[in-house]
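Before a colleague's protein record goes any further, I have to sign it off. Would you go through it and say whether the fold makes sense for this chain? Take the sequence as given and treat only the tokens as open to question. The record follows directly below this note.
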Amino acid sequence: MPPTSPSLPIHIRPGNLQTSSAIEAWVHRKLAGAFRRHGSKMTAVEVHFEDVNGPKHGAEEARCVMEARVNGRLPVAVQARARNLYAAIDAAAHKLDAAIARVVERIDTRARRRFRQEREQDGAAAALSSKGGEGRSHPRASGDGGVTASADDGRRAVIIAGFGPVGRALADELVRHGVPITVVDINAETIRTQKGLGRSVLCGDISDPEVLRNAGIETAAALAITIPDGADAVRACAAARAISPDVHITTRTTFLSQGLEAMRAGANSITVEEIATAHALAHVVTQQLASNPDRPDRKCRKRPTNTISRS
């Protein structure tokens, strides 16, 4: 039997039909595409066979039922009937792939909608704070998904996870606004350098609960995850949210899919590099087109935003 993934087992229940290694191989082959597209969101698939007509013969004798377990959702089940078992398996696999895609799209749509709603709430809170806060500032998401304001009276720190170019730029901006920061990085030399500059620093893996607690996650105003590895960022979001239900978590990811995983893991806001890059390139190109006096079409003037919204 050809393997698929050890974490995504296929359980075949032959029912009143006799199975074979060739049939089992056909099942794995037909489900390979669904596993490639949705494997990270699935835990198992059950495949049931049935001879519908028994000793009687008919046009559609074989039925295949496939049931997939999708993370955090009720099982997704489909069925198909055909003249032979191979055709029934083929049809059921196509239906299952489409059904899982619909479920995943609904999950992602809800995540985007929640993202937009929380961004709107953050914007409203920031507007109220600027009008009546009398110098008090509160954590909120900036236009690029970063934290730009200090927390309650400036006493609660922002934890910056990762101190590469992104983390350093964020730290400089927060310090400029008088926001206390704590830097967490796995590079011991970086930690020694920043400690020598008088900054609050900690050497360790930000996805480690003990490191998070030592950094002060339980009382922090916000956690900004700037590490370049998207998978590690998702794990850090989950670990931080498990310890502190109220802390604002913002993270960078390379891909939108990773960003959505981070939000499901507990992030409040995300900055997706592929989207930010696309918007930056679009801005450069449209500005060039708009400034070209030889082009009759000069309508590309609107500057795109560098952020994404929940939808």
Notes: Residues 1-7, 132-154, 300-311 have pLDDT under 50 and may be disordered. The chain has eight helices and ten strands. The radius of gyration is 26 Å. Residues 85-132 form the longest helix (48 residues).
